[in-house]
Write a structure and sequence with these properties.
The complex is a heterodimer.
Chain A: H1 2-28, H2 37-51, H3 53-58, H4 60-73, H5 82-166, E1 169-171, E2 174-180, H6 197-208, E3 214-219, H7 226-246, E4 254-258, H8 271-277, E5 279-284
Parallel strand pairs in A: 3-4
Antiparallel strand pairs in A: 1-2, 2-5, 3-5
Chain B: H1 3-28, H2 36-51, H3 54-57, H4 59-77, H5 81-131
Helix pairs in contact in B: 2-4, 2-5, 4-5
The chains are: A alpha+beta, B mainly alpha.
């Protein structure tokens, strides 16, 4: 027992400082712990991202990894481990930046999708607009067609009314208006003085339809020589021609011919027949 | 005879203590093997970043990754393996950042392009509107 004490005593006297020293050395690895100040900056950047809901939702995994890295960087380290601290801060910082870049990319992609939808909407709108325009055009065309039709119907009606007024006869050659010989004194080509309703109506009609050309044909009965009748018929036709040009009808629309006794419309045997044959026909071409 | 083993023990104990201490202290120091895995990962990530056109879109980040790798290789040559491992890991994370920023830049470019297209369409529509 005594010998044992003697053995342990010197041992205890030496062991205590050794253990003390070793524990001191060991704790040197853990004492003076301090969070690297740079880690706080990184933490701030990360918090900023985490607080931005759009960023946070777009890079969940990256932000979680960054969080782990930042937590590690925040671990207190000893003064002699500044290299490790620097390394951890570097890693944490880059992880936060990766999270930011990833979130930005996803945001852009989401935006792109929205832009695509908007573009589709725009296209649709453009197409609708085009279709509307086309429909409107068609409507306008239809209505103008209808208007034109209505107008031509009205015009046709009006023309018919004027034709009726002229008491002209519709034939293959056109409208034929027969001016009786009462217009002329016997054996004379001069028109009777005073107003003539039929000629006035003819002038009105021709001025209303300026694109229509007119053939003026003089006819006679068979009294007298053919030469005389031919000349007379021509002169009478020319009298009508003169009347028309005097009243504003352009002379280039008018063609004059004297047919004499060649085209009777009735028998020359009777006085009535002869009277009917003495005439000037005004043919209004179609 | 009784003293002999005791005296031997007496001499052994400080030796053992020193051994334990030394092993504990070396636990705080670096492993002597080169950080092959970290280095390969860094090289691989740099290569992928280059393939993703990082040179064009995130040149600074890619350069940083390359510089860190060079430093890691130097550390390996100097047998500072812990430093080499840290530098290799930094190189890799820098390359990853280069890739992430490249993707973001590309996405932004595409969106700008699309925006221009949409603007052109709007102009077209506006013209049609005016025609009406």
């Amino acid at each position: 027992m005594n010998s044992l004490l003697r053995v342990t005593k010197p041992l205890g006297g030496k062991a205590v400082p050794i253990i003390l020293l070793s524990s001191l050395l060991l704790t040197a690895c853990a004492t003076a712990p301090e969070t690297p100040p740079a880690a706080m900056d990184v933490r701030q950047k990360l918090t900023e991202l985490q607080r931005n809901p759009e960023m946070a939702s777009n890079a969940r995994i990256e932000l979680r990894d960054a969080e782990t890295a930042v937590e590690l960087a925040e671990q207190p380290v000893n003064n002699d481990e500044s290299a490790l601290a620097k390394h951890r801060v570097y890693m944490a910082d880059r992880m936060v930046e990766i999270a930011r870049a990833t979130a930005t990319t996803r945001q852009m992609e989401a935006e792109r999708e929205r832009m695509g939808e908007e573009r589709d909407a725009s296209r649709l709108a453009a197409r609708t607009l085009e279709a509307d325009a086309a429909r409107a055009d068609a409507d306008t065309a239809r209505s103008s067609e209808m208007a034109a039709a209505a107008m031509s119907a009205k015009a046709a009606e009006e023309m018919q009314r004027q034709i009726d007024e002229l008491e002209a006869e519709a034939t293959e050659r056109g409208l034929v208006l027969t001016l009786g010989d009462v217009l002329f004194a016997t054996g004379s080509a001069a028109l009777q003085g005073g107003s003539n309703r039929n000629l006035e109506k003819l002038v009105d009609f021709l001025n209303s339809y300026p694109d229509r050309d007119v053939l003026i044909e003089g006819h006679t009965d068979n009294v007298g020589s053919a030469q005389f009748n031919q000349t007379l018929s021509l002169q009478r036709a020319e009298s009508v021609h003169r009347y028309l040009t005097d009243h504003g009808v352009q002379s280039r629309r008018l063609t004059v011919s004297g047919l004499g006794l060649e085209s009777p419309v009735a028998s020359n045997e009777s006085a009535t027949g002869r009277q009917q044959n003495r005439r000037v026909e005004v043919v209004i071409e179609n | 005879m009784r003293f002999f083993p005791a005296s031997r023990k007496n001499r052994q104990i400080p030796f053992l203590c020193t051994l334990v201490l030394a092993s504990l202290l070396t636990a705080c120091a670096s492993a002597p093997l080169p950080p092959t895995e970290s280095l390969n990962a860094a090289r691989d990530t740099i290569a992928r970043a280059e393939q993703a056109d990082a040179r064009q879109y995130a040149g600074a980040e890619l350069e940083e990754a390359r510089a860190q790798l060079v430093m890691a290789e130097k550390a390996v040559a100097g047998e500072s393996m812990t430093e080499a491992d840290q530098l290799a890991k930094q190189s890799r994370v820098a390359a990853r950042l280069a890739m992430a920023r490249t993707e973001a830049a590309k996405a932004a470019e595409i969106n700008r392009e699309m925006g221009r297209g949409a603007d052109a369409l709007d102009v077209e529509m506006g013209r049609q509107g005016e025609q009406k």
